[in-house]
Every structure is written in C-alpha cells, then in structure tokens.
Write a structure and sequence with these properties.
Number of domains: 1
CATH class: Alpha Beta
Strand order of the largest sheet: 1-2-3-4-5-7-6
Order of helices and strands: EHHEEEHEHEE
Shape: globular
Radius of gyration: 14 Å
Number of helices: 4
Distance between the termini: 23 Å
Structural class: alpha+beta
Largest sheet: 7 strands, mixed
Helix content: 25-40%
Mean pLDDT: 91
CATH topology: Aminopeptidase
Length: 163
C-alpha cells in the first residue's frame, strides 16, 4: 500500500528533480513540456491547499522519502473538467503498481471535488504511461484548443462517475 500526503514546500525540490529526470530519460527535456513549467520548482505554491480545485499528492517510500507524485487542477478547455498533471515516479519506485495507485487517488479526489471529467496530455515517448492511462479507462481524444504543453502529442479524457 502506497503512503501519500499533500505536497509541502520542503518537497518542491525533490518533485522537480523526479519530473525532470523522467522527462530527460524520455528525451522530453525540451520547450513545450512540464520540464520548463514556471511553477515546477514551487509546486507546493501552485497546488496550495487553500486553492479550490487543485491538489498535489506526494508518494512516500518506506522511510518517508518522496518517491513521486500526482497533481490535479482545473482545466479550462472543457466544462466541469480537471486535468491530471505531473504524474511521475522515481525510477526505483516504478513497476510496483504505485503509478496506478496515484492515478486512483487523483481520480477519487477529482470526483469528490465535483469534476465530471478528467483530462490529461502526454507524449508517445512515455509508452508505459500510455498503457496505464488506457487501462484506467481514459480514451484518446483530439487535441483540445487550450493546451499549455505544445510538444505533447497524445490527449485523453475520462468521464468520472461522481460517486
């Protein structure tokens, strides 16, 4: 069972490191990806718990160390829609089902926050992520008009149950 909690300012550096490391290994350390997001070094501010409709959860290893995380924020491109953001794990934490657990956490949080749909954007270089998204019931859609990460080339949507 994965342990997790809301992001804290002391987590910012480690989460940014995990995200950048993953993107570098996928050859996506280029403009138009999360690698260059202005808030990447300060995710705890961007997902501050006082901001409705946004959350970032960090995954914790067996010694309490940050091993990954997932974010959810409002998505302006569709009505009643949140965006799954920055789902990344440290290499040592991969292959244990924790990506799926983080995704389930994000889905439950989005549903409990009143969102009806969950959107995400990704890239074909992130093959393992594509498999996970499809297994979790996301369906591929056309690129919406309002995307920030212009390099991303796969777009998905999942209808939430709201239960």
């Amino acid at each position: 069972m994965l342990n997790y909690r809301r992001i804290e300012p002391s987590d910012d550096g480690r989460i940014a490191e995990i995200i950048r490391d993953n993107l570098e290994k996928a050859h996506l350390n280029i403009p138009g990806t999360a690698y260059f997001d202005p808030e990447l070094n300060h995710l705890s501010e961007y997902y501050h718990s006082d901001l409705p409709g946004r959350a970032y959860f960090v995954a914790l290893g067996e010694h309490g160390e940050v091993i990954g995380g997932v974010g959810i924020a409002e998505f302006d491109g569709m009505e009643d829609c949140a965006e799954l953001q920055k789902l990344y794990l440290d290499d040592a934490a991969k292959g244990k089902g924790w990506g799926k657990e983080l995704m389930l956490l994000a889905i439950r949080w989005a549903e409990s926050s009143g969102y009806k749909n969950l959107y995400l954007e990704t890239h074909t270089n992130l093959a393992a992520a594509l498999c996970l998204y499809e297994k979790m019931g996301f369906r591929q859609i056309e690129k919406p008009c309002s995307t920030i990460h212009q390099t991303m080339n796969r777009f998905y949507l999942k209808e939430l149950s709201g239960e």
